[in-house]
Every structure is written in C-alpha cells, then in structure tokens.
Amino acid sequence: MASVWLMGQVRAFEDQEAYRARGGFQALQYALSVSPETVVKLVQSSGLRGRGGAGFPTGRKWQGVRANPGPRTVIVNGEEGEPGSQKDTWLMRNRPHLVLEGALIAAWAMEADNLYFYLSVEDWVARQRLEAAVRTWQGSPEFWPLAVELVAVPHTYVAGEETAAVAAVEGELARPRFKPPRPFEAGVRGQPTLVQNVETLAHLPYILREGPEAFRQVGTASSPGTLLVTLRGAVQRPGVYEVAMGTPLGVVIEKAGGGLHPGRQWRGVLTGGYFGGFVGPDPDIRLDFEGMQAAGGSLGNGELTVLDDRTCPLELAGAVTRFFAVESCGQCGVCQRLTKTLAELVADLAVGRGGEEVVQRLARYGEGMRLRGACALPDGAVAAVRTLLKVFPDAVASHLVQGRCEACVES
Predict the structure, then answer these.
(1) Does residue 198 sit within a domain?
(2) Overall number of domains in the chain
(3) pLDDT of the chain along its 411 residues, tens only?
(4) 30 and 129 inside one domain
(5) Are residue 74 and residue 156 in the same domain, yes or no?
(6) 280 lies in which domain range?
(7) Residue 318's domain is classified under what CATH number?
C-alpha cells in the first residue's frame, strides 16, 4: 500500500516550464499520435473511476458519449459545490497545466469540437491560471483547432450537477434538469456531452504516459489509483492529501491529519462531504468506493470531517440539513419541502423538543425519502439523518431527554 503524501511532490503553483520538466504534455503528444479509440481503450484498461462523487467507470462513460454521433462537447466540471471540499480548487490553482492536459486528452478521445472549463465565479485565481494555461497551449506544438472557453457561475451546491453545468454553458441558470436525456445523449446544444470532474481528468496524463498497468499498481483492484482527500474537523493537520485508494481511514487520520488533539477521543466521521453520511470510529474502513459503502458511508468527493468527543453530532447534522434546505434551488417542490422539514426536525431534536415522535419521523424520512427531485439533492440530508440515528444513538437519546449531550457540555 502506498504511503500518504501531500499532493505528490508539488506543493505550490506549477508553471508550464516546471510542468514540462516533470514530463508534462508527453501524454497529450502520445494521444495525438494514436486514434481516439486507442485512448478510450487505455482509460478503460486503467480502471479509472470518476472522482466527482458517483465513482462511475470513466472509460464506460466515455463509450457512452462516443456511441452518439458528433459533434461532441467536453465540460471540465470544477464547480466544487461541497462547502468544505478544496481538491479541485487546489488542482486548478496550483496545477492548471495538469488539468488542461487531462482535459485536452478527453477532448481528443471524444473527437470534440468544444471544450468548456466550468467553475465558480468566486474562484478568480483558478480562472486566471487556467486562462493563462490555455494561452500557452495555443502557442505550443501540441495545439490543434479546438474551441476552448471558460464559463464561471455563482457558487451554489446544485451548480455542480452535470445537467446544471450544461444549462450554464448554454447561458441559462445553473440548475439541474430533469432526465432523460442525460448529457452523454444530448447535452450542450443537443450534442453528446462529456461532463467530467477536474480530479478525474488530472489522472489521465499519468495513465497515458506510464500506462494503465502502472496506474493499477496503486489502490485496489476495483478502485485503482489515488484519491485526493480533503481532511477536516478534529485533526491536528487539516488539509488536502493524496492517498492510495483502499488506504485505511485510521492511517489517513493519523499519518496525514496528525491524529486527534491530545486527550481527545475519536467519535466518527462525516464522509464524502455533506452528502455521504456518518460512520463510526473504525480505523479499518477502506477509503475506496466499496469499503466506504460497506461501512454505511460514501466516498463521494473524498471530503472527510472527523468528529471527536467534543463534537456534537446533532450540531453537525443540523448544519448539513440546514445547508441543503438553503441550497435547494426550489424548482422541485418535494426537495424544497423535504429539506426544510428535515432541518426543522433536527433542530427540534437538538433542543429536546417534540419527544419521541421527532425521532420516529426522522427515521421514516431517512429510510423512505430517497431519489427525489431532478438532482437527488435531498439524498444528502436524508443520508445525514439516517446515519445520525444509526451511528450516534446515545447522543440522540441524550438530546431527546436533555436537549444536549456530553460533547455539548465539554465544548
């Protein structure tokens, strides 16, 4: 198992000269020397899975786009909707040429006519550096005629959903659309469209330069490669770390995060950003798609919020449910009503209001209200509620009776 390390060997902004010195654009040169079909097969052989949340096999996604006749479009999705996630932001700001090379490889493989970089309007540093990277590529030997554009939108949670990205590129509000069709069938201006997360694309240069077998030497058989983890909460060294897929959760917390603060006890983790749900303090949980799912959480976007004995899980669950209630875009009534109701119920439980009925209602919503609305945003609030009741029954019982728990008293 590979060790934990901080963003490989790159710790600050990398310009084009430094990137080329590290082998940058060799993969793109190779891609341009072979057929797009060959590039797709190499990505399939690597076993790369999407790092945006769903973990869908990248090669299969590419096949779906190419199965539809062109012209085609590629969208680089850098609109990082999770409130604490920093991985895509870090890549765009500090390794823009790596992101660009991965995007160009994808555009070549899709035989795309248009390439869009899609990000938050607030992230002006990333935008400037990506624009500069595109200009240097346009004057390089690897250039070929391809329309490249940056699209920046106001930062919201739902803006990161793939159909919202398509809508924004078309000049509409960045709100999810009902499906079907999905972007790979009919996306931007009705064209087959590949919407791919920044981190996913950043793996492509290594795969093409070193080969699929080298990529598979790290990680697990079903989840090969590395993962960028945004580590937050009750650790001594929060930050963004690159770890091998399958690394035990305890190793990441201790080696990357420096462990908990002295004298504190580990209580659990909110996994996969706000969308993934809570898991208990099990150091053997593997950081891969299957391992996290088996533990009752979700790998999601790789964001991990660590709870110690001074962290009230009700307080954190309240923050999650309030966030989704606010971030609901309002076009789906069931989403707007459900997220608001869940936030209110968690708030009642936190202060011991409503009695056992509140817990029973939360349990019903947690188990029976999934996959609602155009983008399944309520699933995040539902996961937080469902896993809160399962992982922290003592805290729930204490709040039900006293309106507080030991963590509330200690903090």
Answers:
(1) yes
(2) 3
(3) 233 444 444 467 899 999 999 999 999 999 999 999 999 999 999 999 999 878 899 999 999 999 999 899 999 999 987 888 889 999 999 999 999 999 999 999 999 999 999 999 999 999 999 999 999 999 999 999 999 999 999 998 888 999 999 999 999 999 999 888 999 999 999 999 999 999 999 999 999 999 999 999 999 999 999 999 999 999 999 999 999 999 999 999 999 999 999 999 999 999 998 888 999 999 999 999 999 999 999 998 899 999 999 999 999 999 999 998 888 877 887 788 888 999 999 999 999 998 999 999 999 987 766 656 667 787 878 899 999 999 999 999 999 999 999 999 765
(4) yes
(5) yes
(6) 226-308
(7) 1.20.1440.230
7 located within any domain: no
Enter the pTM of the model.
0.94
Contacts of 172 (CB under 8 A, 6+ apart): none
